[in-house]
Amino acid sequence: MKPLYVRVNPLDNVAIVVNPEGLSSGSVFECGLVLKETIPQAHKVALVDIAPDGEVIRYGQAIGSARRAICRGSWVREELLTLPEPPALDRAPFAAATPVPAPPLEGVTFDGYRNADGSAGTKNILGITTTVQCVAPTVEFAVRRIKAEILPRYGGVDDVIAITHPYGCGVAIDAPGAEIPIRTIRNLALHPNLGGEAMVVSLGCEKLQPARLFAIGEDAPWMVRLQDEQYGGFGDMVAAIMALAEKRLEKLSRRTRVPCPASDLVVGLQCGGSDAFSGVTANPAVGHAADLLVRAGATVMFSEVTEVRDAAHLLTARAADADVARALVRELAWYDAYLARGGADRSANPTPGNKRGGLANIVEKALGSVAKAGTTAIMAVTGPGERVTSKGLVFAATPASDFVCGTLQAAAGMTVHVFTTGEGTPYGLAMAPVIKVASRTTLARRWPDLIDVDAGRIATGDATIEEVGREIFELILDTASGRKRTWSDRWGLHNAPSLFNPAPVT
Amino acid sequence: MKPLYVRVNPLDNVAIVVNPEGLSSGSVFECGLVLKETIPQAHKVALVDIAPDGEVIRYGQAIGSARRAICRGSWVREELLTLPEPPALDRAPFAAATPVPAPPLEGVTFDGYRNADGSAGTKNILGITTTVQCVAPTVEFAVRRIKAEILPRYGGVDDVIAITHPYGCGVAIDAPGAEIPIRTIRNLALHPNLGGEAMVVSLGCEKLQPARLFAIGEDAPWMVRLQDEQYGGFGDMVAAIMALAEKRLEKLSRRTRVPCPASDLVVGLQCGGSDAFSGVTANPAVGHAADLLVRAGATVMFSEVTEVRDAAHLLTARAADADVARALVRELAWYDAYLARGGADRSANPTPGNKRGGLANIVEKALGSVAKAGTTAIMAVTGPGERVTSKGLVFAATPASDFVCGTLQAAAGMTVHVFTTGEGTPYGLAMAPVIKVASRTTLARRWPDLIDVDAGRIATGDATIEEVGREIFELILDTASGRKRTWSDRWGLHNAPSLFNPAPVT
């Protein structure tokens, strides 16, 4: 393979090396550029001489300034860059460049499970919600028996899952921020893929009483409370959970897939283990799929506050109106304060793997991350754990942690998850299918039984962003309809829910 | 059953009703006291008239002052009490009343598994530590196959467990407090019941690099890193974990139980779902067992900062020396600040169940809680997640959350856990056996397949604190030796590790 780099924006004064083995000092690109030193794949090369304090530009934006002179053909490494201040939130431009809607894509549908609340599921799962970790092993014990003894009799139900978490007791349940884990548990319990109805196992004495989650009385139909006097020990508890589960399974097994408009689809976008290719291949391809979904009427969420913080000014400008921009600023400012209270800031974000993958700092990571969000207007902003109710592109304000973001996007109502990765991760969720998109062909080839889409073909010129984006769009519809299964679902790889609790434990 | 109350201390001006059905207004106690109103079991009755602002005294200490006059024979409910200020830490008496050591109990032993690091296990478990949640489903998949396909060939190994958690990435890993989850994961991996050697599965790009946990190089003997180029996808990853696990199982299965002195035993004490009986029956009985263990040379931990905070002055006085008292004050002050930073204080602690069980506030709960710690001198204080190295009674400063406390006591090296409960919880841990002690006979009778010891007999006069304490002491030795199995182990009830991370997620 001849020496190859990718420059994203005509303004950029750096580009990234495409060749899988990297390039050695002296390599010559087609344009005549000669490498001054050896540069690994995905790392940056200076396209021009950059003066001390000069801006290093990628994605058409400054990702930092040079600590010293950087010669043309040199490796632009993390330690050569100073981290710029994040964009000031009080001067963010509100709805200054709201994109004009693209022509709608009419008649796009998927085959989903219609719920009484109007939502549509992409799976048909019995989910058993727990109010407190005390009951988790009991519910897990019952779930193993339900799957072995009862589920085989009820066709058409995909899975039985225990929604366990470490919340519910031993927490400051009235402290600021405690509403986040509470509404997350509520919204997970009512997830469209669980039929939109909650089945709950409570202990009895926990702080998170079921009535804090749901409008239910003592005789709630789908609840087992282990401390109730009628249960004479563990055997009785398990029998009660199994009996209630069987009633739910009877109901769930009567459901069938029906054609649903794309406007019933809620797609969550996330990246994890990003590299410098993520913003060039996988994320723009997902961004194109996001644009198609929005045109088809679907809801598309992007998230990860610390990974969009440095693009705040670009996002507020894209807001549908000033209210949406204001809500975005409110969520970003809340997170700034949350991090500061804990003695951290957004620079805590890039991982060793991100850096190994060529990402110098959080600014570069953020600019690549927002490429997932495509080009449409941001129609709404939701707080962490809230249910999304708008159509079109929505910012769901969640931490960037893969598991926390996935959990909160699920709580928001996500029924298909698209996950881009550069370094690779065998990630999955029980509640919604996860489509994994690799930023590099080397990863897609090395992990053929984990990666669903190879977006690395974009860097080598073997496919366009639009082609891979269209492929992802079709795969989302096929997956939502149960026509295709993701690798993580085939293996049953399901990361446990991970709640975001900014309040103290007690 | 005739009307019966329990008064703990001669100074007390309240007592709690013993009768399981409670007592109705007009009931007459043997002493002539007549109930002015109906009082549920475990709730408090005023033994004398208490003037407005007068102290309400239980355990010989003020648990609050009366909001209005309380007549002799009335129900002393939560809303009649004002919550006093917590004991001032800057005026806590240091080692002012250090208990004199009781005569040692010589020759007490248990049959444990000796480890190379000098520790002794009470179980023989293959534990697979994860550095990050990304790898959890892969490890869980491998563990299911290891248990089905490999473990049956290796006798003498009790279990194979995946030590999963939501930490490792997406966290501010250099923020203040981040050392707590990191050292917790390290110390769990090196737990005595896992052979004192870690087997680790890492992803590769995560923030929590294995080298932050262990002094290991690239060629660490017991590690699989999923992103390593040699693994061509999921099948290879699982095969690598299974092959490494088999080597560990070969080694573990060669171990046998050998007599170990009681000084090799590390017992962790905790309460959960407490009621007003907890401080009268279960906790004092466990306290007597703790005294016997200390006399036999063992290490005994008590914990739960918010549940000892209101007894701070009693504990600093019991410290072995001023340094221990100073360490205690340091940990309690740290927790005060942690709660304040999150907009909470220790009053966030009592649960609805605690209150239903008769506990008016955190002061009453704390005074009952510290009864678990018996009467011996406090020899050392350890921070959350640290390994305990001292013998005798130790305060391991952990949150009161059952799961967090259990996890941190396990990280501290606990090999037997004693858990007292009033309301009842089907709690258990994978890493160490959990002995559950009920504070009331009604609970022990209702849950015969979950409760290991009925301490409720103390309230009805059917057993003394010393008798039940001795029974718990013997059961600890039998359980540690594998001669008896706890109910939670028989059912396999294992609450997942729950880390304490006071630092932000990103």
Task: Please explain how this structure is put together.
The structure is a homodimer of 506-residue chains. Chain A has three domains: 1-82, Archaeosine Trna-guanine Transglycosylase, Chain: A, domain 4, CATH 2.30.130.110; 125-253, no CATH class; 266-491. The mean pLDDT of chain A is 95. In chain A, strand 7 (109-114) and strand 8 form a beta hairpin. In chain A, the strands form five sheets. In chain A, strands 16-17-15-14-18-19-20 form a seven-stranded parallel sheet, sandwiched between helices. A four-stranded parallel sheet of chain A has the order 10-9-11-12, with helices on both faces. Helices cover 28% and strands 17% of the residues of chain A. Chain A starts with a strand and ends in a 15-residue tail after the last helix. Chain A has 506 residues and is α/β, with parallel strands linked by helices. In chain A, helix 1 crosses helix 4 and helix 5 (282-295) packs across helix 12. At the A-B interface, helix 1, helix 4, helix 7, helix 8 and helix 10 of A face helix 1, helix 4, helix 8, helix 9 and helix 11 of B.
Give structural attributes.
alpha/beta, 506 residues, 4-stranded parallel β-sheet, 28% helix, 7-stranded parallel β-sheet, Archaeosine Trna-guanine Transglycosylase, Chain: A, domain 4, 3 domains, homodimer
